[in-house]
Design goal:
- The complex is a heterodimer of chains A (315) and B (444).
- Chain A has two domains: 219 residues, Rossmann fold (3-Layer(aba) Sandwich), CATH 3.40.50.300; 67 residues, Alpha-Beta Plaits (2-Layer Sandwich).
- Helix content of chain A is 36%, strand content 31%.
- A six-stranded mixed β-sheet of chain A has the order 6-7-8-3-9-10, with helices on both faces. Chain A has a four-stranded antiparallel β-sheet with strand order 2-1-4-5, with helices on one face. A four-stranded antiparallel β-sheet of chain A has the order 12-13-11-14.
- In chain A, a hairpin with a 2-residue loop joins strand 9 and strand 10.
- The longest helix of chain A has 21 residues.
- Chain A is elongated, with a radius of gyration of 24 Å.
- With 444 residues, chain B is mainly alpha-helical.
- Chain B has two domains: 303 residues, no CATH class; 108 residues, 3-Layer(aba) Sandwich (D-Maltodextrin-Binding Protein, domain 2), CATH 3.40.190.10.
- Chain B has 16 helices and six strands.
- Chain B has a four-stranded mixed β-sheet with strand order 2-1-3-4, covered by helices on one side. Chain B has a two-stranded antiparallel sheet with strand order 5-6.
- Classes of the chains: A alpha/beta (315), B mainly alpha (444).
- At the A-B interface, strand 6, helix 2 and helix 4 of A face helix 1, helix 6 and helix 7 of B.
Chain lengths: 315, 444
């Protein structure tokens, strides 16, 4: 069921606890968002998944088999800090990295050609890496990550450094790979891309996994009884009709007698009751339950945790 | 396992294809051959200055029938000068002669002491030597004639002894060895060559590791291979570069050596070159040169058994390189920026510098206890043993030294690997020696 599991991972660097009993399960064929503020322990977790470093305790499983060095050929990893040998030729470099992942020279060359076509990089293949623009180097790095067609991809901030056109290109390639069955971890700070791409997420904060599940469920879980209503009519009339049923959080005037408001229901109030009151006074154009964005959930979580931690110190 | 070969291949090819490798590889032997050619030319050009030595002969033995006005290759001439010394000196001051040779009225009884050479500007030593030889020979002839002795009879009686030195080996079955300055020179060249090669290629490992760390490619690579594989692949790849360069140097130097000999001396057969050099060594004109660097020495170098010396310096270069380069790799992994390389470099370069300094001591007494100890102690043996290789040495010293070095390489690589795998992932943090020791000895 799960392509990859990390169970009860603990990692300390001296006295500093980087990961404290973290478990994540990554279902097959999903794009899995790994979120968390800077220094939360994401990179440490990713390095453990890649067997770059070993955990102090805990165990990773690939296809329900304990993770070994042999599995590293099935993983494609693009670190956040990109790096290539500056003096090497583009083709030569990609083939070298592909062969380190266990591809034969022949297969690597074939796959390279396909990827160079897809990224319109054929003209660049004999240039040296240092001659390329930064965006170009990012493309080379991406191709080098996926060329051996791994079933499991770990991409750390894959869109940083790309212009919007190329970011879209990479995004579409990622979605392509997903439809072909690749399981992908996306570690990113861009909540928009999480909402757009990720099926599941795990959020790491101060070395612990504080939130995990499907994006849909999490947004559902954190909804706060807010609704967005668009209506034609007078704002004063609307407010009086709402009365004690809820409070207005945001309001936008969209035109002459056209408004959009976000309201938060009062305890014990229900949306049907409020709607029946409103409907007699103003013309309801639309009504929609408001779900919090990942950005909001992220920020609230990080801030909330920090508050509870500092509260803990004052006691 | 194949992956380490991939790494070795990349490290090898990216370096061998560089222009600087080509330049260094070709320039080295050309430079060496050039020096050799210059050396021979200097040896041959001892007789070239054109000098006029006025003969102020008061004995009248030399001037007249007997004075041959001999010269060497037409460069030294002996015209007759005024008999009065002061007149002769005046002519010399006027530029007529470069020097005045004063021959006393009775050269036989006043003996050599009264022969005087006057000059304004210094006369080359080789010219003086030649003139002395010539004058002695003429006086000899005169004496022979007076005593009715023929030249042939005299040559038969005349005796000149020059010791050649020979070291007797303790083992009866081994041939005795000729000892000469050539061995000192070979010994020095051996140790210096190994020192330079270890330093140059060790630094390449250091720079290679730093480049991987700074460019951050290292994280991509070690998601495919173990850090120790990357480290060893780099070290072995660069070792192969070093051996390639070394092999080309040796071969190409041989070719250049023969070529230069051919053009300078006009011989292509090594046997002939050797003979020519030996005869040059006996020529009096060469006394003007330093006794360390005469043509005799060169012919002794050609006599050395290269098939003993070459494998030994190759082994100690390789061994020393492997020992030091894993330390250099660890240093490269520890540093973030070029500027803080120094504090970690010193403990690695210091033993190297000590070794080359101590090699000079070993050179003075290659069979002494100090030399024996230094040629076995692993940090110094790669540089000190090549010194002893030029002389006779106990075979068990060699075997022990090799064994100790190999064991040390394994240990050092293991410790260096522990530092390396942690260091390469550390950024933006000043690493202290305390931490490094912790990485070496405790589980991380």
């Amino acid at each position: 069921m799960h392509l990859f599991r990390a169970e009860n991972i603990v990692k300390r660097f001296g006295k500093y606890v980087a990961l404290n009993d973290v478990s994540v399960e990554i279902p097959r064929g999903v794009i899995f968002g790994l979120l968390g503020p800077n220094g939360a322990g994401k990179t440490t977790l990713i390095r453990i998944m890649n067997r770059i470093i070993a955990p102090d305790s805990g165990q990773c499983y690939f296809n329900d088999v304990p993770l070994t060095d042999a599995h590293t050929e099935k993983i494609g990893y693009m670190p956040e800090e990109r790096g290539l040998y500056k003096k090497m030729g583009v083709s030569e470099h990609i083939i070298y990295l592909a062969r380190l992942k266990g591809m034969t020279a022949h297969d690597a060359k074939k796959a390279l050609n396909e990827w160079l076509d897809a990224f319109e990089m054929q003209a660049w293949k004999n240039k040296r890496v240092e001659e390329l623009s930064k965006g170009m180097q990012q493309k080379v790095q991406f191709v080098a990550t996926v060329i051996h067609n791994p079933p499991f991809l770990i991409l750390d901030e894959p869109f940083s450094g790309f212009d919007p056109v190329n970011a879209d290109l990479v995004k579409n390639k990622i979605l392509d790979l997903k439809t072909k069955g690749t399981t992908i971890i996306l570690s990113t700070h861009s909540m928009a891309s999480v909402e757009e791409l990720c099926d599941d997420i795990a959020m790491i904060h101060q070395g612990e996994c504080v939130l995990k599940g499907s994006v849909k469920n999490i947004r559902e879980q954190f909804k706060t009884g807010e609704y967005e209503i668009m209506f034609g009519g007078n704002m004063v009339t609307f407010t009086s009709a709402l009365w004690a049923g809820g409070t207005i959080i945001q309001q936008h005037n969209l035109g002459v007698d056209l408004w959009k408001v976000r309201i938060k229901l009062s305890p014990n109030a229900n949306i049907n009751g409020i709607l029946s009151g409103l409907i007699q006074k103003v013309e309801i154009k639309s009504l929609q339950e408001y779900l919090p964005g990942m950005h909001e959930i992220f920020v609230n979580h990080v801030k909330g945790n920090e508050m509870s931690v500092s509260a803990g110190y004052t006691e | 396992m194949n992956k380490i070969l991939l790494i070795i291949r990349r490290e090898y090819w990216t370096r061998v294809r560089k222009r600087s490798f080509l330049v260094m590889t070709l320039l080295g032997p050309i430079l060496a051959a050039g020096l050799y050619g210059l050396f021979i030319l200097v040896a041959l050009s001892e007789e070239t200055p054109s000098v006029r030595i006025g003969i102020c002969d008061q004995s009248e033995i030399f001037i007249g029938d007997e004075i041959p006005l001999q010269n060497r290759n037409g460069k030294i001439s002996y015209p007759e000068a005024p008999k009065i010394v002061d007149d002769a000196k005046d002519s010399m001051r006027a530029g007529k002669y470069d020097a005045i040779l004063f021959i006393p009225r009775d050269p036989i009884n006043s003996y050599g002491g009264s022969f005087v050479l006057y000059y304004v500007n210094r006369v080359p030593l080789s010219v003086i030597k030649h003139t002395e030889d010539l004058t002695s020979r003429l006086l000899e002839n005169y004496k022979l004639k007076m005593n009715n002795i023929s030249r042939d009879e005299f040559d038969m009686v005349r005796t000149r002894i020059s010791f050649s030195q020979s070291e007797v080996s303790e083992n009866k079955n081994e041939a005795d060895k000729r000892t000469s300055h050539a061995q000192d020179i070979i010994a020095f060249i051996n140790s210096f060559l190994v020192y330079i090669l270890i330093l140059v290629y060790g630094m390449q490992v250091l720079r290679g590791v730093m480049e991987e760390k700074q460019s951050r490619i290292v994280e991509v690579i070690i998601s495919s291979v173990k850090p120790i594989q990357l480290m060893m692949g780099k070290i072995l790849g660069i070792a192969a570069v070093g051996l390639t360069q070394f092999a080309i140097w040796i071969t190409f130097s041989g070719i250049c050596f023969v070529a230069v000999s051919y053009f300078v001396l006009g011989f292509s057969d090594p046997q002939q070159i050797q003979e020519q050099l030996q005869s040059m060594g006996q020529m009096p004109a060469n006394d003007g040169m330093s006794s360390m660097m005469n043509a005799d020495t060169l012919s002794d170098i050609l006599n050395m058994n290269l098939w003993v010396v070459l494998p030994i310096i190759t082994f100690f270069f390789l061994g020393g390189y492997l020992l030091y380069s894993s330390m250099f790799a660890a240093v490269g992994a520890l540093v973030d920026t070029d500027s803080d390389t120094q504090q970690f470099m010193l403990p690695v370069t210091l033993p190297l510098i000590f070794s080359i300094a101590l090699a000079q001591l070993a050179l003075k007494n290659p069979d002494g206890d100090l030399a024996i100890f230094l040629s076995i102690f692993p940090l110094t043996s790669p540089i000190v043993f090549p010194v002893r290789a030029a002389f006779s040495f106990d075979i068990w010293h060699l075997l022990l030294s090799m064994a100790v070095l190999i064991v040390s390489i394994v240990f050092t690589a293991w410790f260096a690997g522990r530092i390396y795998r942690i260091g390469i992932l550390m950024y933006g943090k000043q690493i202290t020696w305390r931490e490094v020791f912790k990485w070496m000895f405790f589980k991380q």
